[in-house]
Design brief:
There is one protein chain. With 120 residues, this protein is an alpha+beta fold. The protein contains two helices and four strands; from the N terminus they run E-H-E-E-E-H. 22% of the residues lie in helices and 18% in strands. The chain starts with 10 loop residues before the first strand and ends in a 24-residue tail after the last helix. The protein binds FE2/S2 (inorganic) cluster (FES). FE2/S2 (inorganic) cluster binds next to loops.
Length: 120
């Protein structure tokens, strides 16, 4: 019989802020602006008074080529994000409304980003 596990946070977000030397073949989320966007997500989450939300920084999540990356629990949903607008949409639609933001979703077997989400 499985007992339901109660989570400490209702929504726990891990944003990779790993930094590598410039020119590294895998690049890194930090070089793509993840630290500022993580800070923005924390600030917006507080401003919106989202109860039970925790936004943490993480080391490399091993999906560097898809970065910046974040994973949200419960559920283990992965997203790529590039802008404050992306963060706003994840907060509103995923965290508050309980939906999945399909346009930013990373599939488990995904190894490249769609052309419209790649760095300019
Ligand atoms: S540097 Fe962010 S996933 Fe590896």
């Amino acid at each position: 019989m499985n007992e339901e596990i109660k989570t400490y946070f209702d929504c726990h977000v891990f944003c990779c802020v790993n930094e590598r030397q410039p020119g590294h073949p895998r690049s890194c989320c930090s070089a793509k602006g993840s630290e500022a966007l993580r800070d923005y997500m924390k600030k917006r989450g507080k401003a919106l008074h989202i109860k039970g939300l925790r936004v943490n920084q993480a080391g490399c999540l091993d999906r560097c080529e898809l970065g910046p990356t974040m994973v949200i629990y419960p559920g283990g949903t992965w997203y790529h994000y590039n802008s404050e607008d992306d963060i706003d949409e994840i907060l509103q639609r995923h965290v508050i409304d309980g939906e999945t933001v399909q346009r930013l979703l990373l599939q488990p077997d995904q190894t490249t980003l769609p052309i419209d989400q790649q760095d300019p």
